[in-house]
Amino acid sequence: MTQDPPLIAILDDEPDIRRLLADTLEDAGFRTASFGRATEFEAALRRMAPDACLIDLGLPDRDGLALVHRLATQSGAAIIIVSGRAQVQDRVTGLELGADDYVIKPFDPAEVVARIRARLRKPARETSRNGQTASFAGWSADFDRYVLTAPDGAETPLSHAEAEMLRMFLDSPRRLISRTQMLESLGGTAGDSFDRAMDVRISRLRTKLGEDPRNPRLIKTIYGAGYIFLSEVGWS
């Protein structure tokens, strides 16, 4: 059975930008759905599940950053901001609120395609890790549903960005992961904004895992070197 190509949702109030992105992405083999207003986009999410969303921040009917944050907490889609806001603080804020990447207008359409492919690329897995559910220290993480389940059975949703980072740790338990390796694995762009976004994601993961920030049991910081995930991991 042939699998449908990934679906990319485009939200931008400029028709020319929507058309350029849709044409480029469809030429690259993706399916697309385009929207000029956030209300239309949010209504469509009730009947479709995009693999990635391209979100402009300057929307006529919603605050773009608030929409990004809501998507990050409620959807498993990759989120890429495409915006004319070029200030470092705008990029930092977007990444902190849950975006996976940030592209500044004007942009090269081929770069957007490359960034989407990087976000959707599945990491190579060893045979023992070919499942989508991981178990560790009484917890489980379901990467099909983007759900983290605590030892007491309580479920917490994971954003795409949080799930990416957790999967990176679970694929390499008890091994040091440097910030450079994290950057390569997560497909970000080197710089203060992405560094800060990684710190925020780790902080959020620790909070969802019930970690004491002064004495974490699972995600340990090795100052000047990187991080180590301290639990054994099983896959199913």
Automatic annotation (TrEMBL):
GO terms for cellular component: cytosol; protein-DNA complex. The keyword Phosphoprotein applies. InterPro entries: CheY-like_superfamily, OmpR/PhoB-type_DNA-bd, Sig_transdc_resp-reg_C-effctor, Sig_transdc_resp-reg_receiver, WalR-like, WH-like_DNA-bd_sf. PANTHER family: DNA-BINDING DUAL TRANSCRIPTIONAL REGULATOR OMPR, REGULATOR OF RPOS. The keyword DNA-binding applies. Residues 131-231 form the OmpR/PhoB-type domain. The modification 4-aspartylphosphate is found at residue 56. GO terms for biological process: regulation of DNA-templated transcription. Residues 131-231 bind DNA. Coiled coil: none annotated. Residues 7-120 form the Response regulatory domain. GO terms for molecular function: phosphorelay response regulator activity; transcription cis-regulatory region binding. Keywords: DNA-binding, Phosphoprotein, Transcription, Transcription regulation, Two-component regulatory system. This is Response regulator transcription factor.
